Amino acid sequence: MSIFVGKPLNWQTGLQRSATPVMKQINQLMSFTNVLLFPILAFVVIAIIFLCCKNVGNTVISQTNKNLPLELMWTIIPIMILSCICEPSFKALKYQMSQKRLPFISIKVTAHQWYWNYEYNLIGNRFNYNSNMLKQQQRIGLKKTNSGLYPELLATDYELVVPTRRVVRILITSADVIHGFAVPSFGLKIDAIPGKLTDAWIKVITPGIYYGQCSEFCGRDHAFMPIAVRAVSQERFSNWLKLAKSNLDNAFRLMRYGS
Ligand SMILES: [Cu+2]
């Protein structure tokens, strides 16, 4: 059974594949901006080369200091270009910040030095657990020997589990210093600030495992507090939720892909 894994790839230059509508918009915005940027880059490079060639051996510096049409042109054209970028950019930002639909579930994420705690708060189903980076010696015990699915430094012992195709509200805070909860495939990057609860939302379309990392320097083990999110169908999520409250190990064992 092949599962989608949202992780960085070797020699990757673009963004990670989008798994949520928010990331889809960010990807579109990036493509659109690139379409505008490449002609500008080409124009600037050609202009530099052209002017350099034209002025080879010319020791007289140009004394022209006023050219109204030119000044108007280089003011108005950039304004127009920036306006073109502004519109989709603000649209994406507004979409990212608004939670129009009622969330299916709220999950509280608390950052600690140097691990994450996930709290599920449903009526009769309130429980929380810690998510630490997967250690090499845990791989066999947790059946996470496949390093393609569970990459070193990104995989965790217990993932954050979310249902697919449902709006999940994520409340983010910190118990000690400032951390950053970032999952590139979700287009999600929210600071975890002590004493402050910040909310975000995700709606994962494709089931899979998605990796992220703490994105605010938070101390010695900042590089070793990865974020792993497992997105499963609603049915599997409900089964997991029922079990997880009483027996977390069992819940993860039963839900594991390919088993
Ligand atoms: Cu951190």
From TrEMBL:
UniProt protein name: Cytochrome c oxidase subunit 2
Xref: PROSITE patterns: COX2, COX2_CUA, COX2_TM
- Which organism does this sequence originate in? Candidatus Hodgkinia cicadicola
Q: Does the keyword Metal-binding apply?
A: yes
Among PANTHER family, the record links this protein to:
CYTOCHROME C OXIDASE SUBUNIT 2, CYTOCHROME C OXIDASE, SUBUNIT II
Encoding gene, per UniProt annotation: ctaC
Required co-factors: Cu cation
- SUPFAM superfamilies noted in UniProt: Cupredoxins, Cytochrome c oxidase subunit II-like, transmembrane region
Annotated keywords: Copper, Electron transport, Membrane, Metal-binding, Oxidoreductase, Respiratory chain, Translocase, Transmembrane, Transmembrane helix, Transport
Q: What GO MF annotations does this protein's record show?
A: oxidoreductase activity
